[in-house]
Amino acid sequence: MVKGDLDPTNWDEFRTTAHRMLDASITKMENADQGRVWTPLPQDLRDQFSRDLPRTGSNPEQVMNDIMPYGAGNTHPRFWGWVHGAGAPSGVLADIIAAAMNVNAGGRDHIAPVVERQVVRWCADIMGFGDDASGLVVSGTSLATIIALKVARDKALPTVRGGGIGDARLVGYTSKQTHTCVKRAFDMLGLGSDALRMISCNDAFEMDLDDLRAQIAADRADGLQPFCVIGTAGAVNMGAIDDLDGIADIAKRENLWFHVDGAFGATARVGHLVRDQLAGVSRADSLAFDFHKWLQTNYESGIVLIKDESAHRHSFADRPEYLRGTERGLAGGAFWAVDYGPELSRGFRALKVWAHLVEHGIDKLGASIDRNIETARYLQARIAREPKLESLAPVPLNINCFRYVTNDVNMDAINEEIVIQLQESGVAVPSTTRLNGQLAIRVNITNHRTQNSDMDLLVDEVLRLGEMLSVAAA
Ligand SMILES: Cc1ncc(COP(=O)(O)O)c(C=O)c1O
């Protein structure tokens, strides 16, 4: 009999409640394709979360049931906003086990570091990083990028961990289409976001390598210290894949650290359709990508991989006496996550990733990614057939950017309104972006539940709303 202050006084009652809540969760997951995509929060639900701090306990079950319809909607097959994964029911089970174990995966000799290393090994294998690569399962690509670029910075500036940046004038390079997490990493690493040179892109939104070479030469001539280049495997706006081999060649010649942001795109290596374009991923010094996007594990889970394990460890390892490892006992264990990243206390994220890979196998996950790419191509073909729609970017991967064409001077506002009405009606959730100055309806398909028929429904609705709004504006 457990006697902790916070343990249930009646375990049978707890078990019954837990089963009821699990049932409600399974019903929600089973009906992921039903009903509205996104539902705005009703005021009375918001009010539940502006109350005074409770001094005594009460049962939160009802409120937890009530909140379930009010997520962003990314479990629904018609959610295509930003880059959200749809998740999978099996992840819930792994999270239950992880919560019940309540391990701290920062270090020590227990099962969590062993599972995490297995996941890292598998990912290094998938990405062609070799047996000696190190890595860490993290919250997502944003954190993975900070870790990778810190290793790159520390390698370029061996005294930086103790002495700080000082007068060093490190500069790095990436394309104008790179995700903002790279700029944020430069800011957080004390390099300054201006030290990140935004290289121009070609018509396919891929990094212009002539511009890259010219910028590196200009910076060297100015006495700056180029130290890294960041390529993108799947740009957030339209899925462009940089010429990774070309960047790798330049990085090698210029002695730069080569990092790849592969948040969603790199995972298409497990499919067949674009595997060849992603071959250059394996030449990177470091790679960041997410499981919670195109691999469909539940939030949150991403990974950083670093080819040079010793550079990775040297960038973070610094354990004081109270964290000293021992040969035997619980303080043993060869892999302490705290030696490879900023967090000491951390949850057992690796379990849901491991369980997901084991349950589905990498071939099925690859087929699911390929199916999304086929669906994006299907949508592109439909857009090409519709005189009132205009494609605004090529579709190298899984993202379509297009717009409804009107004679109205305010075409951007009409397209923005189309997207908002699609969201508010609960029919679909695309998002928007701007390409070459034009507002685009952006449909990102990282959703294993999406079917081609959903694309037809989307196009029909865009045409209907576009016509209605154009008439109203006339
Ligand atoms: C290309 C790219 N890089 C980085 C990120 C950031 O990833 P996360 O949200 O997992 O931190 C995203 C998110 O959409 C992305 O699309």
Automatic annotation (TrEMBL):
Any Pfam family the entry gives: Pyridoxal_deC
GO molecular function, one term: pyridoxal phosphate binding
Residue positions where N6-(pyridoxal phosphate)lysine is found in the record: K293
Cofactor: pyridoxal 5'-phosphate
Cross-referenced InterPro entries: Aromatic_deC (IPR010977), PyrdxlP-dep_de-COase (IPR002129), PyrdxlP-dep_Trfase (IPR015424), PyrdxlP-dep_Trfase_major (IPR015421)
Swiss-Prot/TrEMBL keywords: Decarboxylase, Lyase, Pyridoxal phosphate
One record GO biological process: carboxylic acid metabolic process
Cross-referenced Gene3D superfamilies: 3.90.1150.170, Type I PLP-dependent aspartate aminotransferase-like (Major domain) (3.40.640.10)
Family of this protein: Belongs to the group II decarboxylase family.
Record protein name field: Cytochrome D ubiquinol oxidase subunit I
